[in-house]
Amino acid sequence: MVEMMENRTFAEIKVGDTASLTRTCSMKDVELFGVATGDLNPTHYSVESAEKFANHRKVVAHSMWGGSLLSALLGNELPGPGTVYRSQNLAFSGAVEVGDTLTVSVRVVEKIAPLDIVLDCMGVNQRGETVFSGQARVAAPTEKLVLPRLELNEVSLRRRHHVFEDIIARCAVLAPISVAVCHPCDQVSLEGPVEAAKLGLIDPILIGPEAKIRSVAKEFNLDIAGLRIVDTQHSHESAEKAVAMCRSGEAEALMKGSLHTDEMMHEVASRDKGLRTARRISHVFVMDVPTYPRTLLITDAAINIYPTLEDKADILQNSIELAHVLGVELPKVAILSAVETVYPKINSTIEAAALCKMADRGQITGALLDGPLAFDNAISEEAAKIKKINSAVAGRADILLVPDLEAGNMLAKQLSYLADADAAGIVLGARVPIVLTSRADSAKARLASCAVAVLFAHARRAKGGVAAQ
Predict the structure, then answer these.
(1) 208, 257 contact by CB (below 8 A)
(2) Is 0.90 surpassed by the pTM of this model?
(3) In principle, which of 133, 137, 334, 448 could form an S-S bond with 378, CB 3.0–4.6 Å?
(4) What are the φ/ψ torsions at residue 383 (nearest 5 degrees)?
């Protein structure tokens, strides 16, 4: 049944008529009001500030949050639809804290022909204390209106992007690392390392045809003065030299330029001249998802197409080590499938159960594992509760291990394009971290990928060199 709104015309209104509404103030109300008005007074967002500056033990709502309820009451009830505000005065005698229930009331005290109504206004909290009082003057409608109550668009709050900024900021106290930039022969692939060098993240070594690199720098006004260039004839030679420099220790990380990923990774994976270790090489997306309360790692979405159980153990260990580097001491790993129970016809559920048992036996270390978990159960505590999943991981995952590359790639891109997420890619399990960027990556994502490599390289230094050999 459709709920209706009915106004009271000037002719219908009598002195003494009243109306009221009651609403409990939530932190979401305060934040939405702040977003709408731009009011950044810290007493409205921080308990510490509220206590220090306003002598309150809870966050204090904006004074006009309560006052704005008068607008709703006048516009919806008395006089209702068609009302036009003339003036409002309010005296505030108390504060509304988050959690308070405020009853706002109006009473008609005067009618001024031809249209104006004067109303006494008051706001009282759940303890009977007056928070504000005053008078409003409005022009009442002359036409009778009975309308369906409007369904407003739902508004939700989300975190600001901050994960990448935090990662980059952590590198401010670290010395830049040497990075072999493989074939940076277009604007995007050259701009990234140049900007990272300006921020002091890396010391890039530009490996590719020197004339082409200088031409691109000149065309797009990129300052490469002082940067070392290793001249090559073509992209294949660029990949060979970049990998060789990383293998010898001359460079501490590798960054993909404008050559195809397969061409560079072929050299990386070479048994004799590449950067392989005893562990499987794998890719991790570091995701900043505004609708999710923590940094999210997705693996593998770029290297291993259909990983075996043994591959997945290595993929997991790589991502766990990265989570440690990013400051997550005991990451929660959700091993994804289509369902949350072991089902013999879905191989990923069997492998998930096996991986969890491998963790129990110490074959995978440094994290809490659970699986199989469907995606909703992995990232939503509410979904996990509905399914009655009792798990320390469900709803709070830091790492998502996907069944295969197709699933991981689609998941990461869905988050990027439907949830406004940012993604930074890095390849692990090799002798050095490998920055694997895409043409579609934002400048911030490319910088974040460099910063992740810097953090990983410094962590490796602290451990005494190459891991997983």
Answers:
(1) yes
(2) no
(3) 334
(4) -65, -40
